[in-house]
Design brief:
alpha+beta, 4-stranded antiparallel β-sheet, 9 helices, 14 strands
Length: 235
């Protein structure tokens, strides 16, 4: 998109592509804050982490593919900005910012600090498979002394907790009281809450229906066969 705009109350947000940069701007008609977008989180819909005056902010508006446009960022609907800075976005605490980069990038956090110099955008093997880097180096040398543990051997409960480190576990949702529409995208929590869930049955684990190495299949009907491995038509 060359440019997109979104208007609400006294503020107008604009995303523009200028030269080799994408610029996020917000104005109240009298003043404007504009910053380059260095970080966009999400492969489908995208939320922007912005840097302004040496602080990190979650952009108050995000891009949503379903509407091919901008709207208020999920979870921030209750925010009513009173200043231009508040309209720019919600300031992230150190812990929140660290969690954003830790889940959406690889080699992003060390000693509880974001490592902008070494992080790799996106989720790579090492992110989920501890020791994957060393394993690849051994293969290059013609050796195979170590193999990362197979996550598919986890119980359904352990898998939900493992994936929930980023996708939000049952414990995290309850602890942080993330109830309502916002948790519809927290798959491990929703899976554990389902009536089908059995923590010791691998047929209901995260990887039973979803291969994390492949793009998510969005056609609901494609999952019928998975469901029917346990729920036959006779039932």
């Amino acid at each position: 998109h060359a440019a997109m705009t979104f208007h609400q109350a006294a503020y107008t947000w604009t995303l523009e592509h200028k030269g080799d940069q994408n610029i996020y701007s917000v104005t109240d008609g009298a003043a404007t804050i504009s910053v380059p977008i260095h970080w966009a989180f999400g492969a489908d819909s995208q939320t922007f982490v912005l840097e302004y005056q040496d602080r990190l902010y979650e952009g108050l508006v995000s891009y949503y593919r379903k509407i091919d446009g901008l709207d208020i960022t999920m979870g921030d609907q209750r925010i009513q900005p009173h200043t231009l800075l508040e309209a720019l976005g919600r300031e992230l605490s150190t812990g929140e910012a660290r969690s954003c980069f830790q889940c959406h990038a690889t080699n992003a956090v060390a000693q509880d600090q974001i490592q902008f110099g070494t992080l790799q955008p996106g989720v790579h093997c090492e992110h989920c498979h501890s020791g994957a880097g060393a394993h690849l180096q051994e293969i290059a040398r013609g050796k195979l002394d170590s193999v990362p543990p197979k996550l598919e051997k986890m119980s359904a409960e352990d898998m939900a907790t493992f994936c929930g480190q980023c996708h939000r576990s049952f414990a995290e949702v309850v602890r942080n009281r993330l109830f309502g529409q916002v948790n519809v995208r927290f798959q491990p929590y929703r899976l554990v809450r389902s009536k089908c869930f059995d923590g010791s049955d691998r047929r209901i684990s995260c990887v039973a229906c979803h291969d994390p190495h492949q793009q998510v299949v969005e056609d609901d009907r494609s999952y019928d066969a998975r469901c029917q491995t346990c729920h036959s038509a006779a039932h």
